Amino acid sequence: MAQITEKVDVCVIGAGHAGCEAALACARMGLETVIFTVSIESIALMPCNPNIGGSSKGHLVRELDALGGEMGKNIDHTFIQSKMLNASKGPAVHSLRAQADKAEYSRRMRQILENQEHLVIKQAEVCDLLWDDVDADTVSGKAGATKKIRGVRTFTGTVYEAKAVILCTGTYLKARCLCGESITYTGPNGLQAANHLTDSLKEMGITMRRFKTGTPARMDKRSIDFSKMEEQFGDPRVVPFSFSTDPESVQIDQDSCWLTYTNEKTHEIIRANLDRSPIYAGIIEGTGPRYCPSIEDKVVKFADKERHQVFLEPEGRYTNEMYVGGMSSSLPEDVQLAMYRTVPGLENCRIVRNAYAIEYDCIDARQLYPTLEFKDVEGLFSAGQFNGSSGYEEAASQGILAGINAGLKCQGREPMIIDRSEGYLGVLVDDLVTKENTEPYRMMTSRSEYRLLLRQDNADLRLRRKGYEAGLISEEQMQWLEQKEQMITQEMDRLKKTVIGASAEHQKFLEKMGSTPLKTAASLAELMCRPELSYEMLAEIDQNRKLLPAEVIEQVEIEIKYEGYIERQKRQVDQYKKMEKHKIPNWMDYDEVPSLRLEARQKLKAFRPVSVGQASRISGVSPADISVLLVYLEHESHMRDLKKE
Fold this sequence. Notes:
By secondary structure, the protein is of the alpha+beta class. It is about 35% helix and about 20% strand. Helix 2 runs parallel beside helix 9 (about 390-410) and helix 2 (about 55-65) packs parallel to helix 11. The chain is globular, with a radius of gyration of 27 Å.
């Protein structure tokens, strides 16, 4: 039988949120790219919650956009409600969240992919990875990659030869969906699972694991009594996700969401049927997400709680399906219906799609470098839920990083690494590739130690240059960024130098604003530091201000109000950077390091960290071990330099 062979630069396996961003990044870098999906209808599918963003996830979408990604732009075009979460708190935890029209979100992203130059969509199941064995670099005992990727083979036998392959399989690998005693061997939403690739991965020596996630039921809107629920509105003034979206274009008529609660009757039904839940009956093998538990888990683990929040969210403008947020379940259909009908407003509800749990194969991401390339397989990258994370935003942001690094590798350029001090994406990747994650990883603001610096509002200032250097940001966008930076600096400088005296006019203004009168002269910047005063308020006594864009004013206000805290975090980052810049060379042999504890030696040999900073975050490696390592590295480097002389 004749075999078709095609040559491309990059193969992307999977067209979910990670795959879309990875493929677009490679194609936009000028690389011939093919993206595989088991079903073209699953491109950018939102099989669970119908929203983008949320606490900390909004940060990831902004960072993705700053690097040149598509998710932020796509949700700006397809949202039906938008809210800034935590608006009453400090700017570090402000997070944008938007309800999506799910069908429209997927349709538009598919259109973007279909019209992207250098990108081809292929509906096919990839069943084999193709690789060559290479001689490992065993200099001083440090092993390098033992394999090099050379392409993929589809189920129908077509071979695609490629310089790089990116795995973005989501929840499709050997997937099975569970609803009580009913088990279907499909991917999400009843779509075909990918049943063959796992064996090929194992053959390559990649360690696999089994995770689980779930989704709530979808209700027929016509069967819901919204009068018994609390209406949840969007923000009066919508803030776009993308830095390139015109803020006026997102001021639309928004749809409402609704809030209701479970009660003791709900909990009684759940407790009485736990033996029929696959989670508690031992049928489910995979580990589920701690921070997105099923309603069964909530009732068992938080037995003291009398009720749990339930959000009814529209799935789109042109459908009657409503998503029942907060009530993910794998209970049987009859139990689900009885359980949902105890909730106020759902007494007569009709289920359109049952809730279900889904199990799937994924990896321990500690097999990856911070570039998301496999340590043992050169040219093989991975992103998204396949790496053990959860959520659309976590997947998409990993996707663009894997895509950029695959592209840079093909072009023979240095890789891109985003560290913990540069972005939430850096925190996400570092946590995945360094720490032992025994459950699906979810991003949270509390995971970032530098969150005052890593705000969603300044993502472009932090990461735009990296996107530009990779080739995903235009000259025009870069020029605007530089102009914006200049305006921020100039305005902050002006406010610090503009001093006002304790005149009657100024005292009267401060009194009107509920602020303490001046005893001596003060700069406008000093006045802005007062919690009750803002940049906008000071316009009344600020005679020389120019008309500035809102995004510039936002940065000026935050930088001035939180200057002391920001400077403190910058000093912490300087210390962190010293450790990150201290790279561990290829010749490192941990067996030769005297006084290194056995556990640390074993962990370092297995993990192969790229820097002393990364080594310090490995469980089982103590500060004393790091001190020993630093002394040894300094001594060995010095001795090698002497030999060269």
